[in-house]
Amino acid sequence: MPEGPELHLASRFVNLACRGLVFCGAVEKSPVSRNPEVPFESSAYCISATARGKELRLTLSPLPGAQPAREPLALVFRFGMTGSFQLAPAEALPPHAHLRFYTASHAPRLALCFVDIRRFGRWDLGGEWQPDRGPCVLLEYEQFRENVLRNLADKAFNRPICEALLDQRFFNGIGNYLRAEILFRLRIPPFEKARTVLEDLLHHRLSPELTLSQKIRAKLQNPDLLELCHLVPKEVVQLVSSPSTSAGWVPASHRRQRLWARSWGGRLRCLPSLAAVLQCAGDELLAGPEWPHHLVSGGSWTPGPKRGQIQKKEIPGNPPRTPGRNGDTRG
């Protein structure tokens, strides 16, 4: 699922791929999409993009002299489970291209496409960020940190830290694989109360006797949870994907393989206890090494079936289940 880094990479891709291109005509929506029509048509316009957390704003700007004369139009995209942008030949559109912007060139004519296989992605007209989303963890770190620490009394922080990290009012851009990496690096029990974890940061101050360079070095060597919410997405942007690829982000399976093989050197992990919760919720998370018993809710953790080997309960009257490719049972 695209998270903050992937949205940032998608905006970078759009800006790079569309640099120097002139688009024309009407915006075309697929008939199967339930998203709104985009009432925009121009003889010549350009496209730019910016990202904030898990949202991307696409701006269509008419060029001077374009007809009909009109103001720029902005759309805000949320990628859902499988959304991405691709630039493709107009005569060979990718499957599931639900919104299409065509260039004026005829040699060959191209289309910038919003591709979404599962159709959970959404776009809204007007260009306004969702008001209930907090500052971006990647691009607005200071505002993000202040927003979290100022609102620790909110009931959202009564929940376990593994759940609170997905609340986009406070952690805009953090998703499943990011929270797993952050919790693993800090050895934080996933079911620890979020307020308990974060209240310590209110009183954490570096010694005023340290020089500026010493303070910076101390923060880089021992980042706290909120700092990792900023630093880990930055690592992903640097490591995961080149913005010049044909798609704006890398699918999760490829992203994890590349993270595992490159600079993180196999450090991408998850907590066994957290993995069990995610399996129940239908989410996917990499399996990792067992955590020390004192890091898991309840003080101990008994290893059970590995991910992909959990046997579902048989229901009387149902046909028997056969093992799937990964050892799981499928009806």
Q: How would you explain this protein's 3D organization?
A:
The chain has 331 residues and is α+β, with helices and mostly antiparallel strands. Among the domains are: 122 residues, MutM-like, N-terminal (N-terminal domain of MutM-like DNA repair proteins), CATH 3.20.190.10; 108 residues, Helicase, Ruva Protein, domain 3. Helices cover 28% and strands 18% of the residues. It is built from 9 helices and 11 strands. The strands form 3 sheets. It has a 5-stranded antiparallel β-sheet. It is elongated. Keywords: DNA damage, DNA repair, DNA-binding, Glycosidase, Hydrolase, Lyase, Multifunctional enzyme. Its EC number is 4.2.99.18. This is DNA-(apurinic or apyrimidinic site) lyase. Belongs to the FPG family.
Search tags:
disordered C terminus; five-stranded antiparallel β-sheet; elongated; DNA repair; four-stranded antiparallel β-sheet; DNA-binding; Helicase, Ruva Protein, domain 3; N-terminal domain of MutM-like DNA repair proteins
Any chance you could write out the topology, listing elements then pairs?
Blueprint: H1 4-17, E1 23-26, E2 28-29, E3 41-52, E4 55-62, E5 73-78, E6 83-89, E7 97-102, E8 110-116, E9 122-125, H2 141-150, H3 161-164, H4 176-186, H5 194-202, H6 212-221, H7 225-239, H8 252-261, H9 272-281, E10 322-323, E11 329-330
Antiparallel strand pairs: 1-3, 2-7, 3-4, 4-5, 5-9, 6-8, 7-8, 10-11
Helix pairs in contact: 1-7, 4-7
Chain-averaged pLDDT: 78
Main β sheet profile = 5 strands, antiparallel
Output the helix-strand order. Answer: HEEEEEEEEEHHHHHHHHEE
Which blocks of ≥5 consecutive residues have pLDDT under 50?
Answer: 242-314, 326-331
Structural class: alpha+beta
Helix content: 25-40%
Number of helices: 9
- Number of extended strands: 11
Q: What spatial order of strands do you see in the largest sheet?
A: 1-3-4-5-9
| Molecular shape | elongated
CATH architecture of the domain at 4-125: Alpha-Beta Barrel
Termini separation (Å)? 25 Å
CATH topology type of the domain at 4-125: N-terminal domain of MutM-like DNA repair proteins
Radius of gyration: 23 Å
**Portion in beta strands:** 15-25%
CATH class of the domain at 4-125: Alpha Beta
* Name given to the CATH homologous superfamily of the domain at 4-125: MutM-like, N-terminal
GO molecular function: class I DNA-(apurinic or apyrimidinic site) endonuclease activity; damaged DNA binding; DNA N-glycosylase activity; zinc ion binding
Keywords: DNA damage, DNA repair, DNA-binding, Glycosidase, Hydrolase, Lyase, Multifunctional enzyme
Family: Belongs to the FPG family.
InterPro entries: FPG_cat, FPG_N, H2TH_FPG, Ribosomal_uS13-like_H2TH
